[in-house]
Amino acid sequence: MGSKDLKLLDVFSYESLVHAVAGAMGSVTAMTVYFPLDTARLRLQVDDKRKAKSTQAILSEIIKEEGLLAPYRGWFPVICSLCCSNFVYFYCFHSLKATWLQGQRSTPGRDLIFGIAAGVVNVLVTTPLWVVNTRLKLQGEKFRNEDIQPTHYNGIIDAFVQIMQREGVGALWNGTFPSLLLVLNPAVQLMIYEGLKRQLMRGVHRELSSVEVFLIGAIAKAVATTITYPLQTVQSVLRFGQHGQPADQSKLLNSLRSVMYLLINRVRKWGVLGLFKGLEAKLLQTVLTAALMFLLYEKIANTTFRVMGLRHTMTAR
């Protein structure tokens, strides 16, 4: 069997599939648990005239004005998008590692490169799902910003159809440019997570404890989120599709101008700290979600490999 055949087997390996399913299941469960925190974060990012600043205050405000279940509005499309997104990301990441490392030990630099490559594929494939789920998640909410126009979508399919009819197919990839820049977020997160994991397992072949996995997952996500948060805010605004920046003939140039326009506009309105508006809610939500996700991911993957009687190669990274 030639080297090309071996690389093809690595790409479509059972191990990559296990990692992808475990990552998808872990992320979906974790996001469901902490979903209201994501609702608060998104509202703070998009509705820039809202007075409530803290996560607790904005959630209390949402429940009082819109009902007890309002913090879970848009749960289904978000979960669908997250499941697809994490499946694609983890599958690509571990397929790339298996293909290029061929059993060799990985390094932080290699982990970062594999993470960026997997992130680019993930963004190009799943951005339409995230555009639709952002619209559905914000639909029916009471905004303080009068310039925001209400939308009326009857589910995921109807949202896809309306967006394509009214705004064109290209609108489904709104926010792709900052999303491509944001592949650094999961890449940095996985680089730090894998690095810390290797340090804890150095010279010892064992499974990490639940506390260890939770802590290194939380640390990795906290660092990655803080570094990339301004671009995440711009991404949310662009996906919502009501940022009010006129289109340019060049889509790439217009995307770059939109990102710069939104970043500069926020700095002018609220100063540099305006770039981090909603960071408290985002950190609380994303750190807890990522930590729980990694914990579930490791447990699911380890259990699956053990049940199938296969050696868990994660310890050889």
From TrEMBL:
Pfam families on file: Mito_carr
Official protein name in the record: Peroxisomal membrane protein PMP34-like
Lineage of the organism: Eukaryota, Metazoa, Chordata, Craniata, Vertebrata
GO CC annotation, single: peroxisomal membrane
Protein family per UniProt: Belongs to the mitochondrial carrier (TC 2.A.29) family.
InterPro entries registered for this protein in UniProt: MCP (IPR002067), MCP_dom_sf (IPR023395), MCP_transmembrane (IPR018108), Mito/Peroxisomal_Carrier (IPR052217)
Alphabetized GO MF terms: ADP transmembrane transporter activity; AMP transmembrane transporter activity; ATP transmembrane transporter activity; coenzyme A transmembrane transporter activity; FAD transmembrane transporter activity; FMN transmembrane transporter activity; NAD transmembrane transporter activity
The species this protein was found in: Sinocyclocheilus anshuiensis
Gene3D superfamilies: Mitochondrial carrier domain (1.50.40.10)
This protein's UniProt keywords: Membrane, Repeat, Transmembrane, Transmembrane helix, Transport
TM stretches of this protein: 12-35, 74-92, 112-132, 171-192
Family annotation (PANTHER family): PEROXISOMAL MEMBRANE PROTEIN PMP34, PEROXISOMAL MEMBRANE PROTEIN PMP34-RELATED
